[in-house]
Hints:
Layout: E1 2-3, H1 4-12, H2 16-24, E2 28-30, E3 33-34, E4 41-42, E5 49-51, E6 54-55, E7 63-68, E8 100-101, E9 110-116, H3 119-126, E10 134-140, H4 146-154, E11 157-158, E12 161-162, E13 167-170, E14 177-182, H5 189-196, E15 201-209, E16 212-213, E17 223-225, H6 228-234
Parallel strand pairs: 9-15
Antiparallel strand pairs: 1-4, 2-3, 2-5, 5-6, 7-9, 7-17, 8-9, 10-14, 10-15, 11-12, 13-14, 15-16
Helix pairs in contact: 1-2
Amino acid sequence: MERIDKIIASALGITRSEAKALIRKKQVQKNGVPVKFADEKAALETDRLTVSGREIEYNKYVYIMMNKPKGVISSTDGSKTGEKTVLDILPQEFRRRGLFPAGRLDKDTTGFVLITDDGEFAHNILSPRKHIEKTYAAILDKPFTPADVKAFEDGLEIGSERCFPARLSPLSGDCKEAQVVISQGMFHQVKRMFAARGLTVLELKRIKMGALELDPLLGEGECRFIKNDEIALISDKK
C-alpha cells in the first residue's frame, strides 16, 4: 500500500504538492470513486487510479533528475566528512526510503545526477559491460586542437588505464568550450583526459545521460521526477 499523492507524483513526474492539488480538485479517482484525502492509500497490484479520467501507469521505483550544484557530493551519507550530499538537498516531496545516486559527479562538477531506488536499473547503466554514454560541457583554460580530438577518439591513457574512445567537439568558436561524450565512469575521468593533453578544466557540467538531456528548466539544486517514457532514453530498460 502506498499513499495516493506519492503514487500520482511519481507516475506523472510532478511534485507531491501538485498531486495534492489534483486530489483537492477531485481529478483523482480510485476504482471510480473520487479520492478525498492525499494520505489515502492504494494497493498497487489491485487498485485502479485515474487522473482526469486517464489511468495512470505507476512504477514500483522512482527516478529523479537533479541538477547538482557545486559543493555537494554524490553520496548517500556525508556524516563522516561533514559534507552535504545530493540526498541532503533533495526536497521533502521527493524523498523515500532506499534512494541513492546512480553514479557520481565530482564535488565541484555540476549537472545531471540520477537518483533512484531501483538497484537493478542502476547496475544496468553502471555495469562496465553496459556503460551508458554521458555527455559533459567543459570550459577549458585554452583551446583544444584537432590533435586532441583525435587523441580522444583513439582512447587516451590516464595513469595506468586506457580510456574507451570518446568524442570531443567544440561548443564555442574559440574551442575553449567543449562537449565530451564518454562511456565509462573512471575517477575524475574527463578532467584527467584533458590533463593528459595539457588542458585544464575550469568548469564541468554533465548535460546528458544516455539520450536524456538535463532539463533546462531546472536550476542548480532543483530536481524533478523522470517520466516513464524518459526512462528508455537513459538505457534500454523498458
